């Protein structure tokens, strides 16, 4: 994305506009007074974009145009005349991974995943993210484009698009007792509102440059489900997983660069409270059946100690 050069809120383009992150970003941009041109693959599909048209300010300041990552030149019209571009479009696929354990690693904006590793373990999504970001940096350098990259961890929070996006569906499944989440391994988590706010912050801060990790807190799948089961005992959260948990390197994310710019990410309880109230309002979460005096504990009955205290 390029920096905002004027004080007035001009027109910005958001690619992949119907997506989880993009929809929340568009909500914030409209709230802040921007005119937004959203690029989607099928602007005629009103149903898919209905949640965008329902946003405050959308009728006056949102426009949806066509753009497809796989069609060269198809974003030319979408970005023409825009002061900035928020590029969030991506084909999200489920992750296949089998990484090997390692020592504690501290990751910052200088850290890049290994292309060799991603290829060897067929982690195609991550590989695509590395290669496309590297291309973006080369292109920005050659064409003097002011590029800043926001690197969110796993995004949690209200998901405006329906059907839910893939990662939001994974969380919904987890909250409904699904046992497949372990495949994600140890991850950072961040509120979708912080991801959107981080994008706008780096756009509006002329001194912002390079890459920014945007994440609140890390947790292993086991730590996460135990925390969630303790905090939301009315939900059918399982603390067991179908598969053996992958042995992930114990990394910590260094987020001081974004904090120095003024963004402190909301903690885990806020992101899951917001996510869960949203999913409950939509009727997408199952409650545990009320216990009768004769019913006994289930094998998944969790301990009351939060394991996240040490995270
Ligand atoms: N969700 C997370 O936890 C997370 C974490 C870190 C980074 N990210 C990154 O954040 C960005 C947004 O993620 P998200 O979770 O919001 O994903 P999402 O809900 O799946 O949204 C991605 C959007 O990209 C568009 N898209 C897919 N294939 C496309 C193509 N060939 N050409 C043009 N557009 C295409 C889709 O819009 P249409 O179908 O309407 O065209 C879709 O709505 C991605 O770059 C992702 O890698 C996400």
UniProtKB/TrEMBL annotation:
GO terms assigned for molecular function: oxidoreductase activity
Keyword Oxidoreductase carried by entry: yes
Residues in NAD-dependent epimerase/dehydratase domain copies: 12-92, 125-209
InterPro entries with a match to the protein in the record: Epimerase_deHydtase, NAD(P)-bd_dom_sf, NAD(P)_dehydrat-like
Protein's UniProt keywords contain Zinc-finger: no
Source taxon at top rank: Eukaryota
Pfam family, one: Epimerase
Keyword list, A-Z: Oxidoreductase
Regions annotated as coiled coil: none
Segments of this protein annotated with the region Disordered: 287-311
Protein's name in the database: NAD-dependent epimerase/dehydratase domain-containing protein
């Amino acid at each position: 994305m390029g920096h905002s050069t004027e004080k007035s809120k001009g027109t910005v383009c958001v690619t992949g506009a119907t997506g989880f992150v993009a929809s929340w970003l568009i909500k914030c941009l409209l709230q802040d007074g921007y005119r937004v041109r959203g690029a989607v693959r099928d602007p005629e599909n009103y149903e898919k974009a209905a949640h965008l048209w329902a946003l405050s300010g959308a009728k006056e300041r949102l426009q949806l145009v066509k753009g497809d990552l796989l069609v060269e030149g198809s974003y030319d019209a979408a970005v023409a005349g825009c002061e900035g571009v928020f590029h969030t479009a991506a084909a999200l696929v489920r992750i296949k991974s089998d990484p090997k354990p390692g020592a504690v690693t501290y990751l910052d904006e200088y850290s890049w995943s290994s292309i060799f590793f991603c290829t060897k373990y067929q982690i195609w999504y991550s590989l695509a993210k590395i290669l496309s970001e590297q291309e973006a940096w080369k292109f920005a350098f050659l064409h003097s484009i002011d590029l800043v990259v926001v690197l969110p961890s796993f995004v949690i929070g209200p998901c405006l698009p329906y059907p839910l996006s893939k990662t939001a569906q994974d969380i919904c499944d987890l909250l409904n007792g699904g046992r497949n989440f372990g495949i994600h391994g140890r991850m950072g988590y961040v509120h979708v509102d912080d991801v959107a706010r981080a994008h706008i912050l780096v756009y509006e801060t002329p001194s912002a440059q390079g890459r920014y990790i945007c994440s609140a807190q890390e947790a292993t799948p086991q730590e996460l489900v135990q925390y969630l089961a303790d905090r939301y005992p009315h939900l059918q959260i399982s603390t067991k997983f179908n598969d053996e948990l992958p042995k992930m390197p114990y990394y910590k994310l260094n987020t001081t660069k974004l904090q120095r710019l003024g963004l402190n990410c909301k903690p885990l309880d806020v992101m899951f409270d917001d996510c869960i109230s949203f999913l409950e309002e939509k009727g997408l979460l199952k409650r545990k059946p009320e216990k009768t005096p004769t019913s006994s504990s289930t094998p998944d009955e969790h301990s009351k100690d939060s394991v996240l205290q040490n995270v």
